[in-house]
Amino acid sequence: MRGEESALLKLTQTIPLPHVKGGFDLMAVDVAGRRLFVSAEDNNTVEVIDLAAGKWLRSVSGFKEPKWVVYRPESRRLYVANGGDGKVRVLDSRSFELVKEFEFKGKADNLRYDAKTKQLFVAFGKGFGTLGVVDTVKDAIVGEIKLADFPEQFEMETGRILVNVPAANHIAVIDRKRGAVVDTWPVREAKENVPMSFDRNHRRLFVGCKTGKFVVLDADSGKSVASLDIAAGCDGIYYDAKRKRLYISCGAGSLDVIQQLDADHYALAGRIPTAPGADTSLFVPELDRLYLAVPQSEQQKPEIRFYQMPRGLMTTEKVHVITYRAGQPKP
Fold first, then answer.
1. Distance (Å, rounded) from C-alpha 67 to C-alpha 151?
2. Does 327 have pLDDT greater than 80?
3. Which range of residues forms the domain containing residue 253?
4. What is the per-residue pLDDT for 6?
5. 119-158 b/e with 16+ CB inside 10 Å = b?
6. Torsion of CA 161, 237, 307, 115, to 10 degrees
7. In terms of Cα–Cα distance, which of 149, 161, 53 is closest to 117?
8. Phi and psi at residue 61, in whole multiples of 5°?
9. What span, in angstroms and rounded, lies between the C-alpha atoms of 196 and 110?
10. 175 shares a domain with 52
11. What is the per-residue DSSP string for 86-133?
12. Collapsing DSSP states into helix, strand and coil, what is residue 168?
């Protein structure tokens, strides 16, 4: 495992968060300001980490089950979706004072910001599913897109949005101009399709299923082209275009690293042990780092772990790729 870790991801630092109770949800980064924003959903706070100094900076309160966070560097605004009251709170990231609130019916969760159109998309619902559309210039909710059920992670293109809808076990294809679902792609390999990532160069959509499956779809046709077994409980999946790898944080207690051999072929390159419940992560390609949030429990203390990518690029032949045959035990 030590060899795998040094070749794929190297744990370089750990930041303890002794005041945080419970688990975490998504993180966002201020690359220029070297700050990491972490949603501590059970603690009802957003934790701010100073990446340059490598230490905890402050805790921001006033939230109700904070879920996803989005940082806009040009406006220095921080958007925080709240699952407890359906509000997206907008903060000045320097003073952390509240500057705006958007209220949605039901739990507010996943967020995505389109810098070109200056639109913020908000996944929300409770017994239903919708994507809300916020015009950040007007600071107003300007639309809603209905879905079959509650939306999880999603990816945006110029004309489309691809949304994981786990209760329906499909990916909803939204036409942005029409503001409506125009197709659905079934995820046949497994259920609980939650995290998602996108290789835009090869037009491949990556879907993680919490039951323990990694699925690759053609992003134009929706056809499944590959799948692999992974650890259970995945909630974060990120594509590293430079190294043609994917990093998947799994609540079962591992970071699974998938090597992209070509657009349609993939292999498990390594499984790095982490901690039970550590399914929240963020890969920052500008910094060549992956951040992992370890939740608080009776058995473990809450912390943020920093993983550094190898400085030199490695060819596929130099990576110890793990493959399996039917019936073989998994690591």
1. 13
2. no
3. 1-18+191-331
4. 58
5. bbbbbbbeeebbbbbbebeeeebeeebebbbbbbbbbbee
6. 0
7. 161
8. -105, -175
9. 12
10. yes
11. SEEEEEETTT--EEEEEE-SSEEEEEEEETTTTEEEEEEESSSEEEEE
12. helix
> Could you give phi then psi for residue 303, rounded to 5 degrees?
-165, 165
Q: In what order do the strands lie in the sheet with 180-186?
A: 154-156, 160-165, 170-175, 180-186
Residue type, 323: T
Give the pair of three-digit tokens for residue 259. Answer: 């090597």
Residue 185 has which token pair? Answer: 């792609």
Total number of domains in the chain: 2
Of the residues 160, 186, 212, which one is the last residue of a structural domain?
Answer: 186
Closest CA to 228 of 256, 249, 253: 256
Question: Each residue of 46-96: pLDDT tens digit?
Answer: 999 999 999 999 999 999 999 999 999 999 999 999 999 999 999 999 999
Burial 4-21, CB ≥16 within 10 A → b, else e: bbebbbebeeebebeebe
pTM for this entry: 0.92
d(CA 262, CA 141): 41
Q: Which of 143, 165, 186 represents a domain boundary (last residue)?
A: 186
Same domain, 89 and 214: no
Question: Does the pLDDT of residue 318 top 80, yes or no?
Answer: no
The position carrying tokens 């963020």 is 282
Pairwise CA distance, residues 89 & 69, whole Å: 10
